[in-house]
Design a protein that fits this description.
- The complex is a heterodimer of chains A (193) and B (175).
- Chain A has two helices and eight strands, in the order αββββββαββ.
- By secondary structure, chain A is mostly beta strands.
- The longest helix of chain A is centred in the N-terminal third of the chain and has 22 residues.
- Chain A is globular.
- The relative contact order of chain A is 0.19.
- Chain B has two domains: 108 residues, Immunoglobulin-like (Sandwich); 32 residues.
- Chain B has two helices and eight strands.
- In chain B, the strands form two sheets. A five-stranded mixed beta sheet of chain B has the order 2-8-7-4-5, with no helix packed on it. In chain B, strands 1-3-6 form a three-stranded antiparallel beta sheet, with no helix packed on it.
- The longest helix of chain B has 29 residues.
- The chains are: A mainly beta (193), B alpha+beta (175).
- At the A-B interface, α1, β2, β4, β7 and β8 of A face α1, β3, β6 and α2 of B.
């Protein structure tokens, strides 16, 4: 029983850490609900703004690589993010997916601070048709790449949703990739027409 | 398959044209071909001493301006909606420096094809394979507050525990 003190302290620290993680990832009682804003007609997004983390970025279109993986925005263009153009557009019913790099080979990139977003934060998208729908963050999660939740990210939903994705964790210099993804789940709270 | 090949070609083209900014009065435009309403990146450089580059084009919704660092920089421009397909000149004027240098390039505006553009989407959008490799170059230093918060909470508990022990000892010795 001599080590009970330090062991109990460690358990308490872990418990507190778990509470923080739960507070960040909580997805209970999402915004909008069944009575949320009506979906918009499809129009390509051209700009992304997230005031809380200083994002003010043009959007380029992304498709699929020959191996079926998602294309990335140009690595050295630190101010750019990319929209998966074969999926839903922001404002349409369905999950619109926008990715951005965490860093470049020389410094920070557009989604460096994505993991700082919290439930209730606002994300704005400007679309080619001039509308500027707003999305409200529901939850933020970090996942190991081998456990990437493809169904949650890309799977069908009956409301306009937004997924913001970047990388995190440890950087493997051999592969040139990070070990984790940060995923932000949001849903439209104002169509901005 | 056609889509995959097109995507592959586009990805390769993106890599090829996304190199260092030109230093010969030309402008690197990424992507070289774009649809109306989409965003493009413009990279170029000016002679020493220029402060900014101002890009104009009949294809742009407005003037795209970038402040130069070491005489070079990247600007972002948005193409007008409803543009007719074709080749449009891009003109950049170096400002604030010793000369009135002009850099030039072109951008190819392609038809907003409903079969592959934003006006239609496959009935069942293809799900990309694996996890997005949107990390970058590995220069990131861990700043996500999730870990520091947990660490901070643990640290506070330790400090509180040490304080409690010290207090009890002080009380005991004070008796």
């Amino acid at each position: 029983m001599a080590d009970r003190g330090p062991g109990a302290g460690l358990l308490a620290a872990l418990a507190v850490g778990a509470v923080f993680a739960f507070a960040v990832d909580d997805d209970l009682g999402g915004f909008g609900g069944p009575g949320g804003p009506e979906p918009l007609a499809r129009s390509a997004p051209v700009h992304l703004s997230i005031e809380e983390i200083g994002v003010d970025a043009p959007l380029v279109r992304l498709g699929l690589n020959p191996d079926g993986t998602l294309q990335d925005p140009p690595l050295e263009e630190a101010g750019l993010a990319g929209w998966y153009s074969l999926g839903a557009a922001p404002g349409e019913a369905g999950p619109a997916v926008i990715t951005g790099h965490l860093d470049t080979r020389t410094g920070p990139s557009v989604f460096l601070r994505l993991g700082e977003l919290r439930r209730g934060d606002t994300v704005r998208v400007r679309r080619a048709d001039g509308s500027e729908p707003e999305f409200t963050v529901q939850r933020v999660e970090r996942v190991a790449k081998e456990d990437f939740p493809a169904e949650q990210v890309y799977g069908p939903v009956d409301h306009p949703a937004l997924r913001l994705i970047t990388c995190g964790g440890e950087f493997d210099r051999a592969t040139g990739h990070y070990s984790e993804n940060t995923v932000v789940y949001a849903r439209m709270s104002d169509p901005g027409r | 398959m056609k889509l995959l090949m097109a995507s592959g070609i586009a990805a390769t083209a993106l890599v090829l044209v996304a190199g260092p900014a030109a230093a010969d009065g030309s402008v690197t435009v990424v992507p070289r071909e774009a649809r109306p309403g989409s965003a493009v990146v413009l990279e170029s450089s000016c002679v020493k001493g220029a402060k900014r580059l101002e890009y104009t084009s009949q294809a742009f919704a407005g003037t795209a301006t970038v402040s130069l660092q070491d005489n070079a920089g990247s600007a972002h421009a948005t193409l007008k909606n409803g543009l007719a397909p074709g080749v449009y000149e891009v003109r950049g004027e170096c400002k604030g420096g010793p000369s009135d240098e002009v850099v030039r390039s072109e951008i190819v505006v392609v038809e907003d094809d409903p079969s592959s553009g934003p006006d239609a989407v496959p009935a069942v959008p293809p799900t990309p394979a694996g996890a997005p490799q949107s990390g970058g170059g590995g220069t990131y230093q861990r700043t996500d507050p999730t870990v520091p918060l947990a660490t901070l909470a643990g640290g506070l508990l330790v400090v509180a525990g040490v304080g409690l022990v010290a207090y009890r000892r002080a009380v005991r010795h004070g008796r």
